[in-house]
Amino acid sequence: MKNKKIILVVLVVIALSAIIGYNYIYQDHRDIESEKPAFTVKATDFIKDFQNSEEEATAKYLNKTIEIEGILSSIDGNSIVVENVIFFALSENETPPTPSQLNTTIHIKARCIGYDNLLEEVKLDQATLLK
Amino acid sequence: MKKLMILLLFFGFIAQSFGQKYYTKTGKLDFEGSVEAFEPVKASNETTTAILDVSSGKIAVLGLVKGFRFRNALMEEHFNENYMESDTYPKATFNGVVNGFSITEIGSKKEYTVEGDLTIHGKTKKVSTTIIIVKNGDTIEVSTNFSVAPGDFDIEIPSVVREKISGTIKIAANFSLVKR
Where does the secretion signal sit in this chain (chain B) (predicted)? Predict the structure, then answer.
């Protein structure tokens, strides 16, 4: 009887650690769309930070979820550009804005992946448009 | 007057051929360091910037390390935190020259060699590889495959996972460049 109990406890422990281990190894990706933004900024202020000091701005914004407000300058397939110098790769299931939204103010949430010094643009991915 | 015209034409011609650049912001970089029988170690980056100066054959590529997406979230985390240390080294770059490049020759598929500096993890190494270039209407398609060793870029792979990650990492680049 006692033996059976021990075996049962051991089995439960093994099962639990297997579940925890599995969930750790196969954990979900971050969901930028549902994350609370670490910063809510105007596009012009955001880009100014990078122009002032790329290093400081990178340390501040890299890998963070950011909500940005700015004027939509161009749409190219699944990516958009705001204020001419902020590049967003839209999230996979996101519908791109319509051409009628060009030159209007839009709100976007995305994750900052860094500064592109070749084109002098900031890049963000997993972007979703906010209503 | 005639001389001035010729001079103007000449400079106009220079200005046109000089600094003619083709570029992309959404170039694709894939890397794979899988070992058979283990979970695939691979990721792709679809936000790579590449610029080709068609007058000189100079090419510049910049991939943001955080932009590499894995299927497995934990693998992506380890890639960024333990191997690439992307908070400290957010960029991977290549600066080089396509040997003997001429825009008039790329109407059909043409193979060139490209040489230059590859910088990953803050460490720069000279590399040389073949590159295929073809002009397709208004776009220039550029593609290449090459291998790198993590050790060359001071990326240490701990012994616990050494069996699961290949010693040579295959990198494939595919860019569709348009006129800037």
Answer: none
Largest distance between two CA atoms of chain B: 77
> Where exactly are the structural domains of chain A?
39-130
Q: Can you tell me the distance from the alpha carbon of B28 to that of B50, in angstroms, rounded to the nearest whole number?
A: 10
The average pLDDT across B57-79 equals: 96
CATH 1.10.10.60 corresponds to the domain A39-130:
no
Domain B20-179 fold is Lipocalin (2.40.128)
Per-window interface: B 73-92 vs A, CB < 8 A: 73-74, 76, 80, 86-87, 90-91
Residue-averaged pLDDT of chain B: 90
More confidently predicted of A131 and B43: B43
Domain range summary for chain B, segments of one domain joined by +: 20-179
pLDDT tens digits, residue range A30-40? 999 999 999 99
**CB contact A54 to B (< 8 Å):** no
CB atoms within 10 A of CB B64: 23
What six digits make up the tokens of B33? 């360091």
Closest chain B residue to A21, measured at CA: B74
Q: Which residue of B23, B51, B66 to mutate against A (max A Cβ within 10 Å)?
A: B66
Sort strands A86-90 and A121-130 into parallel, antiparallel or unpaired: parallel
